[in-house]
Write a structure and sequence with these properties.
Mean pLDDT: 80
Order of helices and strands: EHEHHEEHEHEHEHEHHH
CATH topology: Rossmann fold
Radius of gyration: 18 Å
CATH architecture: 3-Layer(aba) Sandwich
Number of strands: 8
Strand content: 15-25%
Low-confidence stretches: 1-6, 218-226, 262-271
Largest sheet: 8 strands, mixed
Oligomer: single chain
Number of helices: 10
């Protein structure tokens, strides 16, 4: 992978039309893949009021995001270096002050992250799935690449299609990378993409690009619960997440040449 334009972080938002489709697992595995590719990677928990990335990884910060936002500590004090090699910025869990994101909170958060030194080369935001509140959508609009996780299940495709329409209508986003989770094979993946485009409709000018699928076990009775990084270890041997990471890097490279996170946040507010 070409490591060009490292002065500006590649900001990648991972989201979904609803919860429970594997979004956080995908975000963690992509962070691990970017680390394996030699990128200094920071994974941000974008669900400010109900964070769970630190629980997935068994990590805990000694400082809170609320403390950083109120100026009681530095943002660097909240960041945790994981045993997997990448860093995480945990959000709060059950903190009522962050359960509803105001423009002031969002602006302060992005300013803190934008001021990080040294800057990460890849910044992944695990966004609260399905949220269409304006301030939380602006966090996605600040990214250079938007990844949406879904499955071939029809109800989840309906949710994903409506989410895409909302991101287009409210934020002007028109390019989306799709990860198909719990998918049997390429044939099912292609059928899923055709159906998703039909559900989105042709009255909105959006581009949907499939960047890969995660195979499922057809015999569900044999499936077992695995941690996100165990999931990576099972799949990394055939390069699935590594290939996805390379594709996402290419998708975000053009925008990182133009400017950084603050610029895109300001553009999303003014546009």
């Amino acid at each position: 992978m070409s490591l060009l334009h490292k002065s500006v972080p590649h900001v990648i938002a991972v989201s979904s039309g609803k919860g429970g489709v594997g979004k956080t697992t995908m975000a963690i595995n992509l962070a691990k893949a970017f680390h394996e590719l030699g990128q200094k990677t920071l994974l941000i928990d974008g669900d400010f009021g109900l964070a769970n990335i630190h629980l997935f990884l068994g990590e805990e910060s000694h400082q809170s995001l609320e403390s950083a936002l109120s100026g009681k500590c530095a943002i660097q004090d909240v960041i945790v270096q994981t045993s997997a090699g990448f860093s995480i910025l945990p959000s709060s869990r059950g903190d009522s002050s962050l359960s509803y994101i105001t423009p002031q909170v969002l602006s302060g958060f992005i300013t803190l992250v934008d001021g990080l030194q040294p800057k990460p080369e890849v910044l992944i935001i695990d966004h609260a799935g399905g949220s269409i509140r304006e301030e939380e959508l602006q966090l996605i609009a600040a990214a250079h690449a938007v990844l949406l996780v879904t499955t071939p299940e029809l109800i989840e495709l309906y949710d994903t299609a409506e989410y895409i329409r909302q991101l287009y209508l409210k934020c002007g986003l028109s390019q989306f990378s799709i990860i198909a989770n719990k998918t049997k094979n390429q044939k099912e993946m292609r059928a899923m993409m055709i159906k998703l485009q039909q559900l989105v409709g042709f009255d909105v000018d959006v581009v949907l690009k499939n960047i890969g699928y995660i195979p499922c076990c057809e015999n569900k009775s044999r499936q077992v619960l695995v941690t996100p990084l165990n999931r990576f270890e099972k799949l990394s041997s055939n390069g699935l997440f590594t290939d996805m990471a390379k594709k996402v890097w290419d998708e975000s490279t053009l925008k990182t040449q133009l400017s950084g996170l603050i610029f895109f946040y300001e553009q999303s507010l003014n546009g």
